[in-house]
Amino acid sequence: MPIRSHRYQLLVSLLTVALIPICVLIGYQSWLLQAEIRKAEEHQSVSTHQIADQIESFVEMHRRGIEAAAFQITQSGERSKEKLDAILVALYRQFPGFINMYFADKRATTLAFHPEFNARGESMVGADFSFREHFKNLLKEPRTYISPVLKGIGGTEKLLCTIVAPYFDKSGNFDGFVLGALDLEKIGTIIERAGLDKNIYAVVTDDQGQAIYAPGWSALSHPEALDIKAVSQANLVPGQIRLIRHDSSLTKQPVVTTAAVLASPSWYVWLSIPQAEENAIFHQWLASSAALVYLSPTRSQANSRWQLRLWEPKPDSFNVMNTRWPAP
Q1: CA separation for the pair 155, 119 (Å, rounded)
Q2: Whole-structure pTM value
């Protein structure tokens, strides 16, 4: 059989033997790639769930404090400034997440305020807050409300959310309310304690899209409405995490987002990572797979040439076979 035919058969055999494990290895690497991406997404989802739970617990704890104060005033019927001040001081010590707190009558005029004096040294007792939306809501339906993000007026200049609960007279009529101004910078502290990777950013908004925490957010700025379309349209359910791929309005690039919505208040919490991070893992896998596909046939061809050199008859052997030996 011609040497060329041997070479061809040997090359095909070696390529076949080499390509089978390569295909298996590439398949295994593909599985590892998907597993690594899933692991990163699961880690991001767990972090989102934990942060959302901690924020909800933080707000719920402070809501219960305000409701307890309103219940205490309703039961005791006490309205003296000394008594109200004592309650506010105790609440302020127990719930450090409040910037300030106050009791107001049914006309939204403050009866007691803590801390009583603002940054300008002015007493906040007797201030009129009837223009606030939460007071208008209380007049329609006296129950606990958590406001959207507001700019503080009088007692503080920071961004805040208010928690208000009504109290009643002996006949069960609305008689006023107690309010706590929630310090939104405490939300940032919760997120910072989570120890997120540097390439992940967190966002928290109220149900109207007003930023509670976001990259570049400042408590001293004005309320900022973020684009929450991708999150609000994801059919989020409290207690569940949704994975969303979309273009971020904050970073102006494709991101992978894990999002949650709180049961109360209906705040949105989400973590996002640039899609480029996930693409980098894919590109690394693609490069290694291409290297395997390229190097293996090259090596197989080199092996086939080496094998053929072993099979080629040496010139001396041909000379010996062609020599005429004398008859015996």
Answers
A1: 8
A2: 0.77
